[in-house]
Amino acid sequence: MQIILLYYYIRHPYNFDKMYNKNNKNNNLLNLKNKISKNKKIVLAPMAGITDGKFCKKYKNLFAIVCIGAYDLDKDSQIASEKIVNRGRKEFLYNLDEFDNIIQQNIMDAKESGAPVSVNVRFKDINKSIDKIKTILQHSDIFELNCHCRQKEITDLGIGQELLKKENNRILKNNLKIINKINNELSGQLNGQLHGSSTPIFLKIRANFISSNELINNLNNVKDYFDGLHIDCFYPNKNCADLDYLMDLRNNFKDKIIIGNNSVNSINDAKNMLKYCDFVSVARCILRDNIEWIKEINNKTEKYIY
Ligand SMILES: Cc1cc2nc3c(=O)[nH]c(=O)nc-3n(C[C@H](O)[C@H](O)[C@H](O)COP(=O)(O)O)c2cc1C
C-alpha cells in the first residue's frame, strides 16, 4: 500500500495532498472537480463588461470553468465602474436593486456553456453586500473575490489588488471570514458538521504587485478561508507569464486549486503553465477568437497531463 501511495505522490504531488487532507474544504473541491469535464484544463477568465452569461454560452463544451464578471456588489464599487466607463473602458453597469435577478439569469445562461460558473466580484463594504453574496453563493459553482483589479477608481477604494497588501490583510481576512460564515450557514455546515457542500471560494490575484514572499505571507494569514487561487502571472515589461512566481505559490499552497493565467495563446503555453497549476485561464486570446488550440488540447489533454 505504501509503495502504491509513494508512486501516486511522485506522479500527482498536488492531488495527493488534496486526497489525504480530508476536511470540509476538500469536500467542496471534490464537488467542484466532479462538475468539471475530466479532459478540460482551460478556463475562461473574467473580463469586465464582456464575460456575462450570454458571452459564455457561445462557447459550448469548450472550457473547464467559465468566469463571469467582475460584478460590483455595492454602490461605491458601482460608482467606480461608472467612472471607468466614462473614460472608455467596459464594465457591467446595472441597477443594484435588480442584482439578484440579473446574476441568477447570467449564471443560468453561462451554465449553457456546459461548464461550472465562477462569479468574480468587487465590493467596498461587505455589510452592504451580504444579500448579493448570499445569492451568488446559492447559485454559482465558485465565488471569486477580485483582488486583482488595478483600475485607479477601484484601487482608490482600497479594493482590487490593494487587498493583497499587508496593511489591507485585516480587511481581506474579515471579508473572507464573513463570506465563509454565510457559505457555511447556507450549506448547513455548523459546529464543524458537514450537512451539504458549500461553494468554493477563490481569490483572483495578480503577480508582481508585491513580491511572491510577501504575498505568500499575506495569503497564509487567510488560507483557512479560501479554496483556490486564480493567479494572473503578470510579468511587468514582459510579454509572457512569470512562471517562477506561479511556482512559488504552487509550492506554498499545495492543498489549493490553482488556476494559472496570463499570455496563454497556444497548447505549448498552456502545457508550460500547467506544470505549476491545475488549470490555466485565458482572456485576450478569446477576444482574438484564437480558440482552435483549445479544442485541440481538449481532445489531447489526457495524453498530455495524465
Ligand atoms: C478587457 C479586460 C477586462 C478584464 N476584467 C477583469 C475583471 O473584471 N476581473 C478580473 O479578475 N480580471 C479581469 N481581467 C484580467 C483577465 O482575467 C486576465 O487576468 C488578464 O487579461 C491576463 O490574461 P490573458 O493574458 O489571457 O488576457 C480583464 C482583462 C481584460 C483584457
Q: What is the string of helix and strand elements?
A: HHHEHEHHEHEHHEHEHEHEHH
Summed up, the helix count is: 14
Between the first and last Cα atoms, what is the distance in angstroms?
21 Å
Helix content: 40-55%
Task: Tell me the overall shape.
Answer: globular
Side by side, the strands of the main sheet go 1-2-3-4-5-6-7-8
Compute the gyration radius: what is it?
A: 18 Å
CATH homology group: Aldolase class I
Proportion of strand residues: 5-15%
* Largest beta-sheet characterization: 8 strands, parallel, barrel
Question: What is the CATH topology assignment?
Answer: TIM Barrel
CATH architecture: Alpha-Beta Barrel
Q: Ions, cofactors, ligands: which are bound?
A: flavin mononucleotide
Organism: Methanococcus aeolicus (strain ATCC BAA-1280 / DSM 17508 / OCM 812 / Nankai-3)
InterPro entries: Aldolase_TIM, tRNA_dU_NifR3-rel
Protein name: TIM-barrel protein
Description:
With 306 residues, the chain is α/β, with parallel strands linked by helices. Helix content is 44%, strand content 14%. The protein contains 14 helices and eight strands. An eight-stranded parallel barrel has the order 1-2-3-4-5-6-7-8. Helix 10 (212-220) links the parallel strand 5 (201-206) and strand 6 (228-232). Helix 7 crosses helix 9. It starts with a helix and ends with a helix. It binds flavin mononucleotide. Flavin mononucleotide is lined by residues 45-48, 50, 69-70, 120, 146, 148-149, 204, 232, 261-264, 282-285.
